[in-house]
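Key result, reporting period 2: structure in, sequence out.
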């Protein structure tokens, strides 16, 4: 019988070690893709929540403009005097509420009943005509709307030119704590002349 000889340079199969190294490299690559996919899903969820929170803030701002100037939900915390009222520390100090359930400062109004973070919780009644904070309709609010009201007297005349309403909408972002969007609304004083 003839002897089997191996030609030099002839193709040969993969060794077990080469196959294992290839598998490890592929597993690492697939784990990278899986992580990237997870980050993409989280970013989409955050984007959806951001849009919904912005819509709720805009909705509240539009409703504030329809409320009467003397509405009890528009009672000012204080009067801010001067043209730089918007940058007053009493206003700017309440913009960032932090990422924990307890807010960094107590707010004036909240749409959530029994909210410990607000002086006046449940300020939007059941007959509120705007959007619901229960976005997905499961009976549990997905967002909480807060607002503070400040009377603004730009010229120090003793009569406020209007009310500045500071609006903050918060939600729980899984794995990141609470997130928020902010907005403002200005309601002109009907008895004030500019």
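The corresponding designed sequence is given below.
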């Amino acid at each position: 019988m003839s002897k089997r000889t191996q030609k030099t340079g002839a193709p040969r199969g993969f060794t077990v070690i080469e196959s294992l190294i290839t598998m490890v490299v592929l597993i690492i690559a697939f784990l990278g893709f899986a992580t990237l996919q997870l980050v993409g899903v989280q970013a989409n969820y955050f984007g959806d929540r951001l849009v919904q929170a912005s819509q709720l803030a805009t909705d509240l701002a539009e409703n504030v403009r329809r409320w009467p100037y003397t509405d009890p939900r528009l009672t000012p915390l204080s009067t801010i005097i001067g043209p730089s009222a918007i940058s007053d520390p009493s206003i700017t100090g309440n913009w960032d509420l932090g990422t924990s359930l307890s807010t960094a400062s107590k707010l004036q109004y909240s749409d959530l009943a029994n909210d410990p973070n607000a002086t006046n919780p449940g300020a939007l009644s059941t007959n509120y005509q705007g959007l619901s904070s229960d976005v997905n309709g499961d009976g549990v609010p997905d967002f909480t709307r807060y607002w503070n009201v400040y009377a603004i007297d730009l010229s120090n005349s003793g009569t406020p030119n209007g009310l500045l309403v500071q609006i903050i909408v918060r939600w729980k972002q899984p794995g990141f704590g609470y997130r928020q969007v902010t907005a403002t609304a200005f309601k002109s004083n009907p008895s004030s002349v500019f």
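The beta strands are 78-81, 107-110, 118-120, 144-153, 162-173, 177-188. The radius of gyration is 29 Å. This case is discussed further under Risks and Mitigation.
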